[in-house]
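Fold this sequence, please.
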Amino acid sequence: MTDRRDIVILGSTGSIGTQALDLVRANPDRFRVVGLTAGGSNPDLFEQQVAELRPAYAGLGEDASVEAASMSADVVLNGITGAVGLRPTLAALDAGTTLALANKESLVMGGPLVLERARPGQIVPVDSEHSAVAQCLRGGAASEVRRLVLTASGGPFRGRTRAELAEVTPEQAMAHPTWDMGPVITINSATLVNKGLEVIEAHLLFGIPYDRIEVVVHPTSVVHSMVEFVDGSTLVQASPPTMMIPIALGLAWPDRVPDAAPPVDWTRQEAWEFHPLDDEAFPAVALARAAGKQGATAPAVYNAANEVCVDAFRRGALRFVEIVPTVQAVLSEHVVPSNEHLTVDDVLAADAWARSRAEALLEP
């Protein structure tokens, strides 16, 4: 029998956190929650979770997440959304704990800073796309990989031209066709900023150059990503749209959790469609690729400016089609330092500058 793992869950009241707790409840012989933290937006739910699970540590806020990530545990699941997840990510890595990473922003903005603190295999991706790539990479040596192919659902506005996107509302952007996610990630999926962040994340996680990481639109989200090998074969990871499988793998890696989620029903007729990405209507991926190639603090600026723009869009202070151009404007003004000797303060300063600059550009 597999030894039971002690788990710390950061962001326990969010989409990733609540699903992770469902997995823990279904597998009490495999997982025990020893730490719980949340941002504080749903204190009643957090109180219920703490009362039910009785972890050794529980707290609200960023400092609490840093403290929890530093605990003695087998796995820290970082399910926090946004840049606030960086310090807890670094704390978990410094503690030597396996980091199940759903907070892509901390890797994107931290970049080389995060990688230099992580030992080989310490970061296990929980994004469905990167979890898929990690599974497919088991099928061949690193030297045999030609390229990574990340799939994107295309969001609720797939197929629309840029002109047709001019007047979309926050409510429309929140109506994702296949995934149930939090508001920021859902809007990022609609703009494809989320896919841009995932391209940067894939480069950092797997060490594949940007020109060998492709994005293809796959509306049904059954194929979560693919790895193409040098002999022309492609390995595909497929399952119905659910985060339970990547969460389970994140907590149990390299093992699988039986019945984490239902598999594809092969008795039903189903078509797998793939379409090229429309970079004109959705320029976020190309912009992210450029920021990633600049490196250092450029990805942090991309992420921070976008978070400000998403908030403005949700308030009705910015149009949907103005989100990515505003991020691009902020990036164009940023002076990128050398990758050498990048510090946490450098990253956080770039993050703060980008937020301030984006807010200034949004002023009437």
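The chain has three domains: 5-125, 127-241+267-279, 295-364. The chain has a mean pLDDT of 94.
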